[in-house]
Specification:
Blueprint lengths: L4 E7 L3 E7 L5 E8 L17 H19 L6 E8 L4 E4 L5 E5 L7 H19 L8 H11 L1 H4 L4 E4 H10 L4 E2 H6 L3 E2 L4 E2 L1 H6 L10 E2 L4 E4 L2 H7 L6 E7 H8 L7 E6 L2 E8 L11 E4 L6 E4 L3 E2 L1 H11 L6 H11 L8 E3 L16 E3 L11 H27 L5 E5 L6 H11 L3 E3 L5 H13 L6 H6 L6 E3 L3 H21 L5
Parallel strand pairs: 1-4, 4-13, 8-11, 14-21, 21-22
Antiparallel strand pairs: 1-2, 2-3, 5-6, 5-7, 9-10, 12-13, 14-15, 15-17, 15-18, 16-17, 19-20, 22-23
Amino acid sequence: MAERYVIVLDAGSGAVRCHVFDKTDQIVANGACDWVSRTTNDISPYAREFDADASWRNICKMMSRALQKSGAAPREVAAVTATSQRQAVVFLDAAGNEVYAGPNLDLRAVFEGGAIDDEMGSRIYTTTGHTPSFLFAPAKLRWFRNHRPDVYGKIATVLTLADWLVFKLSGVMASEATLAGDAGLLDIAHRRWATGLLGDLGSVGVGHLPLAQAGSAVGTVTAKASRATGIPHDTLVATSGADTQCGLLGLGVYDELEAGVVAGWSVTMQAVTGQPILSPDRRTWAGCFLTPDKWVLESTAGDAGNSYRWLAETVWDGLPGAFNEMEAQAAAAPIGSEGVVALLGPSRMDMADLGLRTGGILFPVPLTFSEPRKGHLARAALEAIAYAVRANLEQAEKAIGRQMSRIAVGAGMTRTRTWLDILKDVVGRPIRIASTPEASAKGAYLCALTAIGEFGSLDEAAASIENAARVLEPVARTAREYEDHYERWLTLDKETRRLPI
């Protein structure tokens, strides 16, 4: 084939994005569409739900437009694949129709999850590597059993969001391990369905699907999907995986003791391990990596890009060019922001103590002697995100008992060069920066290339992009200066956890 294009769907919490890659590994066209939401106020103030039919129609139109924009002839599309946010699930009836579709932000099952953890939290964590349970599929199933028994009685199959997109494209129902594991459905140590546990939880619709290997062909585009998207019938549909694990692959992170930081709306840090590593106090998560012989230890910083967005909209009024202005003013502010400390959410992961907490922006008073400006606030916010990355990296290394051999960073926050300059000095080690901010889409693309035979393995695919990354080296003097600021942030972060809401 003279030309070869790959289409990647990347399904996030608020929107689905489509990226068309050409044979030079470049994104030549993009598209985006919002999820269509259902009204859930009558259900729970914490509930979120998608209109699956309307959302799928929008996704098909978006894919068709992106393909046309790329200039590719339909016959030149070699494969299509999908990655998605984790914990998002879709429930299907026996005919394959959607009875529920919800994002990872659907928190309707808070009480059901609490009850599950009271019953068997330790067993759930040691089996699935994940708690608290209210975030995961079994708790959502229990919510439907308790509150919508009419819907619960129809549930025949549980799919994760990316697996549902693959099903809509190919007509094939299968689950990929990183996605199923991060939905709380796998015995991660053995990479198989947690059948006994799920049976004891009374979960329906799980455990009967084949587990598809990331980087493999799961099927081909159906005639119906072809008519809706413009992608030719019989085009290969590849399996990718969870967006964070795909992000690691897109960063060239694939070997044991390598860490990847996917810094977007939230900042997720995962370290590749040779076996599942659990925290004695359930602070961190363990999950599957894309390859069958590796796992990940996760220590996530939480809201990062989202907290920076909030600052832009609140202090800079969300004006055009606000982020450029913020970065310029942050770059001009001194190291340590002259005592200004941001506590806007990014922190060391502690899934045993999850919930609302007190935060804000602290600065020295009286203002007669200290008068913080906008640049101090922006820099403090960027420094706080960097401090949180370091705290989670150190937590992961303590759990593993080894220092990471390599650290790579990607996703939307890498567009802010000042943050990268801060991060390398706060961490005090070299960091590798991905060639494109679209790390998750790049990883899914590599999975598709492996599925069509351009790489012999996912490890080979990841190794192929190592030279495309640039390395930022810390400045020794600045790194030493940041030590005191980091320790102060740790202290304040800990103290504010004790303050009442």
